[in-house]
Amino acid sequence: MKPRRIKWEKVVQLWNQGVPARKIAEEVGTRSSRIYDIVAKMRMRGEVPLLVRKRKIIDRKKLFQMLREGTPVEEIALKMGVHGASIYKLLSRLGKKRRGEVQVKKINRD
User: Fold this and answer.
1) Which contacts (CB < 8 Å, 24+ apart) does range 74-78 have?
2) Alpha-carbon dihedral 73, 61, 96, 79, rounded to 10 degrees
3) pTM
4) CA angle 58, 62, 64 (to 5 degrees)
């Protein structure tokens, strides 16, 4: 059986619409790694813009309030629309060392 040709234009169109590589791969009948290869080649040609993800800002006051109330980190992450790892990274930067430890430190920025 002859391999199916991938329509690059369709891949680029879906990519620019924000469709994940896995979904594009399913639709055109290939692996997601092949989609990333196509997008990289199209970027070099200047046909695909570099899309920048927007970062969600975590409201620290709301985060600390929810922690004091005993809300689990995964639930906080769901409510704030971020991944649980993002909450843990922020807490780690602010002095929380272990998963079960909830210490809220104030950072003095003089």
Assistant:
1) none
2) 10
3) 0.43
4) 100
